[in-house]
Amino acid sequence: MKKLTLAWNVTLALLYVLALPIYAAKWLRRAVESVFHLSELRKGFVDCPHCGFRNPLDILALCRRCGMAEFGSRLYCTTCRQVTRAFPCDRCTAAIRVL
Amino acid sequence: MAGILKSLVASAAVAVGRSDLALRLAKSTSYARALYNERAGMVGEPPTPAAIYVAAARRMDGPEPMTFGTLPSGEPVRVRRELGLMSALILGATGAGKSRLLIALLLEPLRQIIDDLRLDAHWHADVGVELELIDPKFETFDLFRKYVAAMWLGANDAGRELLERSVRVIDWSHERVTPLTPFDNHFTEISNAYLAHLRADVSTRTSPQSYTDAMRQLLYMFDWLLIELRYPLSYRFAVRFMHDAGFRKGVLSHVPEPEVRYYFENFDLTVPRQTRDGFLRRVQYGTSFPELRASYIPPEAMDKLGLMKEAPITLVNTACTTTLPQALGYERAAWRATDVLCAAPRRDPRRPKSFVLEEAVRFMEDANADHVETLLTGLRTLRSVNMGIILTAQDFSNAVPANVARTVLLNTTWIAGFRAREDAQIFWPHVVGTPDDRRTESARRDAFLREMAGLARQRYLLLVKGNPALPLRAPDVPKPGDALGVSENQLLDVFNREIATKSMLPTATAMKLIAEWEARVVEQGESRTSGAISAPRKLSITSLADLKRFFTASEEE
User: Fold this and answer.
1) Which residues constitute the domain of residue B244?
2) Is residue B31 part of a domain?
3) In chain A, which residues have their Cβ closer than 8 Å to the Cβ of B467?
4) Which residues of chain B have pLDDT under 70?
């Protein structure tokens, strides 16, 4: 019985080792994407992919969930902690996905 | 140091899917920036839809503009010709104004040239643009010919002469027909075999009758035979060829293509009698209507007639709904469309061409048809030879197979949407909303679809790729005879007398030419090969095939 448990644990560990590169690649991809997203957030502007209008991210924003109006990022409400992943372009109303 | 640490933590937070943490970390920066943006006036009231429309209209403007209509504010929308003549899709219900928009867009350059010629008779040597209109429902063809006639009446001698040599008509009626030579290979780069395949594929797919594999093969080989010999489609010829072995042998001796010869030499063995009879019934059906039969002029006679064969402007009427079976009209529309599209890659790109296919839905119903594939390839590639394909359709989203619809939507540069409900969905992602509209997206969408379903005549949405959809009123197109004070019947008389005669001939003359050809080829062919029939060969029966051949020969005798 003990032998069986040991074999099972070894197999499991082996599987983890085999899967490690896949997870590593996944994390790496996500990290690269996050760097890209963060660079946009740091700039404070996002260009509309449809009409090219330069939309500011930090404005007097109105939260769509709780209705709170505050100076800050239009992607995050400090009151209800709602994260908005996309918003409509100020010029053409096309959806702009940021996060 | 603190900034770098903050940034690393923010990156890690986003990487693990906690964007809220990253945003919370940047809270103070966002606050400061928001205040700055507000004070700097970077965040003003978002522009109104009217301002967005005007900005988009300005982006579309350019050299040699075409007027697409006016915005609700009254501002005209002009699109540069290079953009306006690209592939397009015009959607909408009957009577919504599709044809009038086409007339306003496509006849405007021609009208301009005729006006120029009034000032200086040597200004233009040709019409400058090319147009091919295939109309399987007659209305647009009818409007175009009346406008062309009105132009002819209003032109000076130079303008009239230009119109007469620039407009070709393809039409069939009791009185006059345009000769059709579908089995004459005009193409330099298309083999006779492929042309036969295209013709046979169109015939089998547009026909209301079913075709078995053997019959489809027989049709293909028979079309190939006609193309090899430059023969017209003739029921008398087909019957004699199928039933008279001696005549067949004589005919085949003139066929240069060994594949065709081999097929028909073993015809009695390979094609069952029922297939042959079924095939002849279909040939008879296709040639039994006098208007259509008269159009199958022998290509060699066509060469001598001196009729216009190609012209910059070709108006094709294949409408058969009230006078002839509809399927035959679509067969001819598809033949013509295939011809235009196959010749297009080798055209002169210096002169822009618009190829208008009315009622394109019916044309594109069968996603596997070769003519549909040719059309879709044309949509993708003909921009390089300065040719645009304009498709008009009703109920496009429902009636066209999804993959075909997707290809069309991807490869058209502009889309005009008149009154329609389902097709309006194409425009929804590009519709400009009002900033103070607090309704939910689905409520706004429903309201938009309702509005599109009840759109007034002449009103439409224009979507030029890369721009928002513009609500327009199509240009006013006065009735063709109004400016000159002539009736529509007078215009038709002028068109038939001055323009159509250059490319059509009286039906009686056509019938006479066909009768002459049949007498010479079918009858004299009989006398030429009669020796072979009167002296049958002795058959040595050594197999079942020989026995079958023996009995078939006996029946024919």
Assistant:
1) 192-293+511-556
2) yes
3) 51
4) 1-3, 15, 41-46, 321-322, 435, 526-557
